[in-house]
Amino acid sequence: MNKIEEDTMETEHLEKRFGVLSVEKGFVTADHVIEALRIQVIEDMQKGKHRLIGRIFLEQGLMTISQIDEVLASIGKGLPLFKEH
């Protein structure tokens, strides 16, 4: 497996974990996570654009940057992960 594939797998795992932790912390509902994942997949397929789950939540007004940072900190990542790919 090359570096790009490893980075993609890590990002996908962290995004799934990000959604679960966001629900556990009470920031969003499971339905919000499902909808964000749906949006993400559609954008990936139609636009070739990948928005991270946290970015989708932020743009929908569901989470604040400080809430996103709290979730990322609990995963062991800081805001640099929040950038687009």
Model description:
The two termini are 19 Å apart. This protein has helices at 3-24, 30-47, 53-59, 65-75. The model has no long low-confidence stretch (mean pLDDT 82). The chain is mainly alpha-helical. 68% of the residues lie in helices and 0% in strands. The chain has one domain.
Q: Average pLDDT across residues?
A: 82
Largest sheet: none
Helix percentage: 55-70%
Write down how many β-strands occur, each being a DSSP E stretch of 2 or more residues.
0
What's the gyration radius in Å?
12 Å
Low-confidence segments: none
Q: Number of domains in the coordinates?
A: 1
Order of helices and strands: HHHH
Number of helices: 4
Q: Termini distance?
A: 19 Å
| Structural class determined from secondary elements | mainly alpha
Q: Strand-residue fraction?
A: under 5%
What is the global morphology?
globular
